[in-house]
Write a structure and sequence with these properties.
25 strands; Rossmann fold; alpha/beta; seven-stranded antiparallel sheet; Elongation Factor Tu (Ef-tu), domain 3; about 625 residues; six-stranded mixed sheet; about 25% strand; single chain; 4 domains
Amino acid sequence: MSQNTQNSYLDMDMLRFTTAGSVDDGKSTLIGRLLYDSKSIFEDQMEAIEKTSKSSGEEEVNLALLTDGLKAEREQKITIDVAYRYFATPKRKFIIADTPGHTQYTRNMVTGASTADLAIILVDASKGILTQSRRHAFISSLLRIPHMVVAVNKMDLVNYDENVFNRIVSDFRDFARKLDVSDITFIPISALKGDNVVDQSEYMDWYKGTTLLYHLENVKVDAADNVLDFRFPVQYVIRPGMHFRGFSGQVASGHIRPGDEIKVLPSGLTSTVKELVTRDGNLEVAYPRDSVTITIEDEIDISRGDMIVRKDNVPTIKNEFESFLCWMNEKSLDLNKQYILQHTSRQVQVFIEEIFYRINVDSLSREDASELKLNEIGRVKLKTSQSLFFDPYQINQKTGSFIIIDPTTNVTVGAGMIRAGSTRSKDVVDEAASRKLISPNVTWEPWNISREEREQKNGHKAKVLWFTGISGAGKSTIAKAIEQKLWEEGKQTILLDGDQVRHGLNGDLGFSPGDRKENIRRVGHLARLFFEHGNIVLCTFVSPYSDDREFVKSLFPKDSDFIEIHVTCDPKTAQTRDPKGLYEKAMEGKITGLTGYDAEYEVPESPSMSIDTDKVSVEKAVDLVLSLEV
């Protein structure tokens, strides 16, 4: 291999994908076909599986033997463990995780899918969509795998019937409407015969899409790494002598440079990065997945399990939180048992205090549950013996995930994804609305003029002032007075009011919990656009759910850029004011679900400021907000 060819090979990007589905859907055969038709196996391997297939009395070569590495797998013709395979084409390198289809091995599917960029869900054309395929699709959604391919396999068994394919596509689309997946591709294939895997099928001329391999080679690999929030879990303290003390680990997210100010958790002590040391020399900057040893300017006590973050960008620090939990053990979850929770490099004792609900993977509806059995997924509340340093999973997969370990057997019994705030009042099918959705086949267009340049010209920093509270508390009144004063000072402002956006941008939304989430999601992204253009953005929205407000906050670079102001008053005062006549309508039964009357409002736990308009005048409220250096 020439030097140029070698460099070109090393520069190729990599796609990590997983195969999943129900038992006997043909996952291993599909991977074997990909390896065989792309000429990624050696002659002696091919000779071995040909010999094995012939001795077993099989008419065709069993390509599944390329991946079924365990003796038990070959004997039973099933996949038990996760089989990782590597291959490459001239366009891209691939790592494949072949995961089991049997229900009792779903835990292995979670393992294989946890680092994937794309999931292939196989569906047997002769059987249709089964529960295990739905379960794997839902888990892929929970794990936020950005791309999904539904490969309708064994089309040869249904005579390559287009109607069969279309029916399965329709059924899966109905199910997928409740999933948080924005990119789903459907491909009819026969892994056994090779149709539409690497080469186009001559038997399905009605299919006008691409082959599976072409799609894998060309799908855009979205960067799943969080490059904004620097998180460095300390794995090991290195001190070979008196003159060197470093803290080793892998950058979980964000980036760091020598000279950057950092904070150490849980102590809260601060210092400055001195060097980023690796065995190949010092780095000028460390990015996600870089393994480095950080040295700092000050002598600070730091141990394994601590976390190094930026001074002005700190994760949530709590010992109570909620998560989705996938139970992976034959013994059911025991609410009275103490488990071990492993989060990044930190191990703590944990109790699962409450199961809010179990998710029916066929309908994605909630079910009451007092326990979680093998492969069941539920929403739970956990309490740990020491605080964790975490971000919601939808923002940071590295610091938003954990595993549960049984202390008596040291076996991993569960895997969880930490959620932001409480959503007990909202249905699971509405969870997708609070995500950072991205339309398919689009590329981010960088800003033409940076926010920093705009701030310099404007003479002030961009900010978002988020006013939250029940109707009638005084949010809009205070925000309008503040904007007027800022405008008179020559500052660039924009006021986003709940009623204004519902007359156009969000005019298609109602007031169900799901619609409220979508309303705030859209407004959050709109506020971010105005923020990046250097404005002071004033947002006045009831925004009753804490996880929605946390989501909006996560869109901005620093905590100081997002100022949450809780405007409150006695509910009776709000009903007396009733500026829009909503309380009167609610009392007359003309409307239902009015926040502060017959719908829940989740009070902010730690807002930047709380203003009680029963006690504070509008003028005083304006002065208080402006004291925050707006």
